[in-house]
Amino acid sequence: MTAAARPEQAANSAGLELSDAEFASLSQMIHRETGIVMAPSKRALLQSRLYKRLRSHGLDSFGAYCALLESGDGQFERREMISAITTNVTRFLREPHQFRELREEVLPPLLEHAQNGGRLRIWSAGCSTGEEPYSLAFTLLDLLPEATRHDIRILATDLDPNVIRKAEAGRYPTESLAPFSPEARQDHFRPTGDGFSEVRDKARRLVTFRVLNLLDDWPFRGDFDVIFCRNVVIYFDDATQRRLWTRFAGVQTRPGARLFIGHSERLSDEARPYYRLNRGASYVRTDRDVPQQDTQPARAGADRSA
């Protein structure tokens, strides 16, 4: 988890502290907009991350900032606030055992189906700055170099427009490519000579990035062969988590479709009829249908952690 260099000290030195009422108001707004739960223990974190937003508007109190958020012009600033409080912790090929299962067990039959005229759809939900969906694209290309010639697509979504812009740029510090072999780096990245490398066009063509709040209405109805939603749902309240797991099942109607989640996340009891655990690395979709009412959006959801 990354954070600015002790901004909470700057906030305190300036005499700006969140009152109980301001923390309650901001916490309620964040939950309403995103589904993220701001526990009392997160108070100092919230204060430190929003201090820069106050400075950017020339405000001298958190009360004035709350008033801005609630004003008619507050919609844009609410998006900036969510961007400020969410954490973008990601890296290429995170959880290697999951990518090993994907490469060795899940993708080969799906790619054979695509080569015979079928379609393959993968969703990276909560994609952050793009390392996960590009890792998926690289895995596809390693197995099928001509993947772009077939009906194979990766949808990558995140709540935060700022991280989506970074993901679309596909530009990363060269040191972050350490998980890849020298051959893979050559195949999938182009060094830019300034300590950065860019994702090559072949992988880019497989990925479509979109801004999406997970608990809003989804502008698609599936059907996804593979969903990666890792270290996302853990930051929501229990009701939001239960709804999300069953909604994922609603866009994975094919028995055998795979759901990959974070190592500290667990499916809710309500979702267990729709998935079975596969050796700890993924969940396999069963043939149980999801009732229509359980696939509807519930207002209060988001994409990543606080």
Keywords summarizing the entry:
alpha/beta, Rossmann fold, Chemotaxis protein methyltransferase, 306 residues, 3-stranded antiparallel sheet, 41% helix, 11 helices, 7-stranded mixed sheet, 10 strands, Chemotaxis Receptor Methyltransferase Cher, domain 1, 2 domains
Q: What does it look like?
A:
With 306 residues, this protein is of the alpha/beta class. It has two domains: 7-85, Chemotaxis receptor methyltransferase CheR, N-terminal domain (Chemotaxis Receptor Methyltransferase Cher, domain 1, Orthogonal Bundle), CATH 1.10.155.10; 96-295, Rossmann fold (3-Layer(aba) Sandwich), CATH 3.40.50. It contains eleven helices and ten strands. The chain has helices at residues 7-13, 20-34, 43-57, 62-70, 74-85, 96-115, 131-143, 161-169, 182-188, 201-204, 238-250; strands at residues 119-125, 151-158, 171-173, 189-191, 196-199, 207-211, 226-229, 258-261, 275-278, 282-285. The strands form two sheets. Strands 6-2-1-7-8-10-9 form a seven-stranded mixed β-sheet. Strands 3-5-4 form a three-stranded antiparallel β-sheet. The protein starts with 6 loop residues before the first helix and ends in a 21-residue tail after the last strand.
